[in-house]
Amino acid sequence: MAATASALPDGLGWETLALLCVAAFAAGWIDAVVGGGGLLQLPALLLVPGITPLQALATNKLASVFGTASSSASYYLTVRPSLRTALPMAGIALVSAFGGASFAAFLPASVFRPVIVGALLVVALITLLKPTLGAVTRLKYRGPRQLLTGLAIGVSIGFYDGLLGPGTGTFLIISLVGFLGYDFLHASAQAKIVNCATNVGALLFFIPLGAVLWPFGLVMGAANFLGALLGSRMAIARGTRFIRVLFLIVVAVLIAKLGFDIWAEAAR
């Protein structure tokens, strides 16, 4: 595959750069609490004149890795999530994200959007109909079975993050809540560690390809870092109930955004 030039696109103004920083800050905040920050950050990058979808996806990963690293550290120092599950998940998710990123240049997002919307609808219904879901940690498995379930989650969601990305943190949280039995706060803490690894895995593919726009990614990364730091601290202070409510809001927005994309694609 030919390398993609990483020079800045023409026509960039201060207004566009300011918009990117605001979007990155907000994305970092949302990602730190419930995931789904890519809903803001990726579309903002696509507004830049001359940027390609692959450059936008790659630069989004660079900015996001700063935020997920920031929130991972905040959660670990305060919540102390179980690294026995999170680290193996992160390792296999990193490899899987690299694999997903390698497909990103070949497969159109429209192939996956209907499946993702269906999955999000199921997630929303389960969360609404089970108000006690994720209220407290009640681990469903112990030992090897818990590890194997975590690894399966890491492989599947890691691949998705490398391929598309938006909603990865949301899918990680509901998987940790639904399949392993964590409460929303501890699920968010572990999801950030795994999400940081998936961002790194995707970058390991995109950087040699030359698809990362470094000036954008580093500036947006600083804004994403600050947003994630604020978001993780607020989530820790407010607890599981706050995260659950915001989780449902983000899922609803994800469904609306992806549903609109499907409708717009069909109308062309």
From TrEMBL:
<protein>
    <recommendedName>
        <fullName>Probable membrane transporter protein</fullName>
    </recommendedName>
</protein>
<dbReference type="InterPro" id="IPR002781">
    <property type="entry name" value="TM_pro_TauE-like"/>
</dbReference>
<feature type="transmembrane region" description="Helical">
    <location>
        <begin position="202"/>
        <end position="230"/>
    </location>
</feature>
<keyword id="KW-0813">Transport</keyword>
<keyword id="KW-1133">Transmembrane helix</keyword>
<feature type="transmembrane region" description="Helical">
    <location>
        <begin position="150"/>
        <end position="182"/>
    </location>
</feature>
<feature type="transmembrane region" description="Helical">
    <location>
        <begin position="17"/>
        <end position="42"/>
    </location>
</feature>
<dbReference type="Pfam" id="PF01925">
    <property type="entry name" value="TauE"/>
</dbReference>
<feature type="transmembrane region" description="Helical">
    <location>
        <begin position="86"/>
        <end position="105"/>
    </location>
</feature>
<dbReference type="InterPro" id="IPR052017">
    <property type="entry name" value="TSUP"/>
</dbReference>
<keyword id="KW-0812">Transmembrane</keyword>
<comment type="similarity">
    <text>Belongs to the 4-toluene sulfonate uptake permease (TSUP) (TC 2.A.102) family.</text>
</comment>
<feature type="transmembrane region" description="Helical">
    <location>
        <begin position="242"/>
        <end position="260"/>
    </location>
</feature>
<feature type="transmembrane region" description="Helical">
    <location>
        <begin position="111"/>
        <end position="129"/>
    </location>
</feature>
<keyword id="KW-0472">Membrane</keyword>
<keyword id="KW-1003">Cell membrane</keyword>
